[in-house]
Amino acid sequence: MPTPEPVIDLEAYLARIGHSGSRAPDFATLAAIHACHAGTIPFENLDILLGRLIPTDLPSIDRKLVRDRRGGYCFEQNALLGAALRQLGFIVTSLIGRVRWQIPDDVPTPLVHQLLRVDTIDAGPCLADVGFGSMSLRHPLRLVYDTPQPGCLEPRRLVRRGALVAHQARIGETWGDVYTFTLDPVPAVDLELGNWYTCAHPESAFRHSLRASLTLGDRRHTLLNRELTVRHADGRVERREIADAGELLAVLAEYFGLRFPAATRFGSRPDAPWPT
């Protein structure tokens, strides 16, 4: 007898993200849930800086992101979103890609970004992704090419390059790759390997920088090490330098809804950006 697919507490998840609308497996429901998730559950890598590995089994993700009201990165965020959508009747396929945002074309990158193909009953296949941090989507993208779509504060589009698909964002008049991927379903073992690299490999950027991001309807909050940035939909950008660990904890609570004990210090290793 086949092993039942693991499930999450769907009602708790929907309450966590504040979605009380339609549950039909159509594009409107996908877009509403996607926006609620992106604006409620922050992207963050803080457990890595506390010296912890990141488990990606569904019960662990459900406990951390829903019950403990924490955030996570792509292997947690998109696994949680995908599980919820499957339970609502969507067909969901996990994909994996290479991060390209602000990386020179000649620099190779590993397969370390999980994303989702979600098939809807009215709009066909779509790209869903609530786990890219500073360039996460707020709204899903229809799987059409060379057509700008309103995925977030900045226009987005998908571009075909043979078997590869590039997800692009436009800043000013310039389009740049956020990541590239194929439409081939990815086996769970490849997601496990990508997650291990992200949280444990000595060269992973997530072991050397503190990151948090939350994508709201009219602005995006981004924290990179000691700099907090608030980017507004009208183009205004506010930046603030964080002075000390106490201020960091206050910023995490105010801007990202992340609350830690007052003694928490994200510097358990010598190479962490917030030394004790």
Kindly state the mean pLDDT as a whole number?
A: 94
What is the general shape? globular
Question: Architecture of the domain at 10-201, according to CATH?
Answer: 2-Layer Sandwich
Stretches where pLDDT is under 50 for at least 5 consecutive residues are none
The level 1 CATH classification of the domain at 10-201 is: Alpha Beta
Number of helices: 7
- What would the CATH topology of the domain at 10-201 be? Arylamine N-acetyltransferase fold
Cα radius of gyration in angstroms: 18 Å
Give an overview in words.
With 276 residues, the protein is of the alpha+beta class. The protein has a domain at 10-201: 2-Layer Sandwich (Arylamine N-acetyltransferase fold), CATH 3.30.2140. The protein is built from seven helices and twelve strands. The protein has helices spanning 10-17, 27-38, 46-49, 58-67, 74-87, 188-200, 245-256; strands at 43-44, 91-99, 111-120, 124-128, 141-142, 156-161, 164-171, 174-181, 211-215, 219-224, 227-232, 237-241. Strands 5-4-3-2-8-7-6 form a seven-stranded antiparallel sheet. Helix 4 packs across helix 5. The protein is globular and about 50 Å long.
Note the topology.
Elements: H1 10-17, H2 27-38, E1 43-44, H3 46-49, H4 58-67, H5 74-87, E2 91-99, E3 111-120, E4 124-128, E5 141-142, E6 156-161, E7 164-171, E8 174-181, H6 188-200, E9 211-215, E10 219-224, E11 227-232, E12 237-241, H7 245-256
Antiparallel strand pairs: 1-9, 2-3, 2-8, 3-4, 4-5, 6-7, 7-8, 9-10, 10-11, 11-12
Helix pairs in contact: 4-5
